[in-house]
């Protein structure tokens, strides 16, 4: 067992097998060690998040090192039977790779007991392993499919998995099911959870039952005040709050406002609690007409707010101030002169429904209230308010296109997978922020790509916001709020937490210079198997 540094509030535990990993995961869940906030299990690792005020890396290593973990997984008592039509388009190819007949592949898969090991890739996507080991490792497709239908049963490596929604993927498809792996209308949206036992029922030659989706009844907003209507959109307008927490066991990440301090400022300016949902706006452009009087504030990127009053007068306002508007007034957030993302708050907050205890839209999982579009009407809530704040100020020196931004990084957890020259190159050269960047991550480009000294495939492991993942191209991807919970490329370092808000404001065309503030830390041989 090894403990590897990741960031100021998280570290990675590396173990020797899936069985040992899941056994320790079960122990940690039941032990409820002081300060641990969340755990993300994967094939041979557990990513541990902790409260920096209550504990620290070395203290948790010391305590975890005393746990007798063994290698026996304590299974969830719940068993699930999933009907499968073994009709996948890769079934014959899998049979050939295994040296079996198609009938034998179906029989081996259907008669094996499968355990849900961990959730990753997408909400509700369960990685299932079998103690029977019915197949040798099954390679992924050389060219992943652009779209795999929801309900498709696939094999990859030692795992079985069922796609919860239409998505790209490279697993070998052997069947389909009509059972929904992910359904927000259920009390527990994910059908499968870590520790569950799964049995597959062969229904290839039996009639297929059709699951009729429930009708969703929209509740009319009769007593609520419409506050404004979008008359011209920005590139992206999504509701965001502080994010979703403690949902990783069903494969759901944090999401939330990328510039949290700007979100908090917007709410303080209009007198809302700081965690009241706001609208995150990419690169300005939002234009709206007031349908009712309200007080608004715009923070984050430095933008001019142009107001056309109902009486015909025009005025321009700076960001970071309260703006009182009446019915018929129009306002537009101009393109930022510095920074990238604006945050719009109204006094009393916005009214809409949360999804999994959060108002945030997750662009990767496509989860949460839908992004706003032209013509949408926004309603005002009745959040308890306090006095308007006049003391909020913009961040100094927000970046503009062409600027070089310095970001502090913590090395790990896979720094030792790279040769010394590449580790040095990470901080010696500037990295261009490309146009192919979004809430999932910033794609960077450098003159000299990084190269690995350990070249074998990395099994999926948990990742955090700020992680610098290095794909085969050697060009880093800086993960942000909507990043996948697990990833299969090594992470060389992570951006320090206090610079995440700054990352949210870096436009494409800027350069990033990394500054090492903490070297890679690993504690090895802490546990004798």
How is this structure best described in words?
With 529 residues, the chain is mainly beta. It folds into 4 domains: 12-64; 79-202, Cyclophilin; 225-380, no CATH class; 404-523, Beta Barrel (Cyclophilin). Helices cover 12% and strands 32% of the residues. It is built from 7 helices and 34 strands. The strands form 8 sheets. It has a 7-stranded mixed barrel with strand order 25-32-29-30-27-26-33. A 6-stranded antiparallel sheet has the order 20-19-22-17-14-24, with no helix packed on it. Strands 3-4-2-1-34 form a 5-stranded antiparallel sheet, covered by helices on one side. The longest helix has 14 residues, at 18-31. The protein is globular, with a radius of gyration of 25 Å. The termini are close together. 45% of the residues are buried.
